[in-house]
């Protein structure tokens, strides 16, 4: 039976590394742990959705009408972390 090759992506970002080190610290208080989990989840979700399809839309700003991007479809992000979302 052929083994399926697993792709692993390690996010090398200074903010991710900072919050991850705080999660790992033995003496991090529970409230701080939960805060770091929430921040880390946001950073990871941003990276995971980096290439989500977008579509151009016209937006009226206080100065002019400009073209911006919005998500082209709907999607769901589900966290799978040992600590959940704190």
Can you walk through the features of this model?
The protein has helices spanning 14-24, 30-48, and strands at residues 54-60, 65-71. It is 35% helix and 16% strand. It has 86 residues and is an alpha+beta fold. The protein has a domain at 14-71. Strand 1 (54-60) and strand 2 (65-71) form a beta hairpin. Helix 1 (14-24) packs antiparallel against helix 2 (30-48). The chain is built from 2 helices and 2 strands, in the order ααββ. Strands 1-2 form a two-stranded antiparallel ribbon. The longest helix has 19 residues, at 30-48.
**First-residue to last-residue Cα separation:** 40 Å
Q: What is the helix fraction of residues, given as a range?
A: 25-40%
Order of helices and strands: HHEE
Cα gyration radius (Å): 18 Å
Portion in strands:
15-25%
**Which strand order do you get reading across the main beta sheet?**
1-2
pLDDT averaged over residues: 88
Number of helices: 2
What is the number of E strands?
A: 2
Characterize the main sheet.
Answer: 2 strands, antiparallel
The secondary structure category is alpha+beta
Low-confidence stretches: none
What spatial form do the alpha-carbon principal axes imply? Answer: flat
């Amino acid at each position: 039976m052929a083994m399926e090759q697993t792709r692993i992506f390690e996010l090398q970002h200074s903010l991710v590394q900072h919050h991850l080190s705080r999660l790992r610290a033995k003496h991090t208080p529970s409230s701080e742990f939960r805060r770091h989990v929430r921040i880390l989840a946001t950073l990871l979700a941003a990276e995971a959705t980096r290439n989500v399809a977008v579509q151009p839309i016209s937006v009226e700003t206080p100065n002019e009408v400009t073209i911006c991007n919005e998500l082209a479809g709907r999607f769901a992000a589900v966290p799978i972390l040992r600590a959940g979302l704190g």
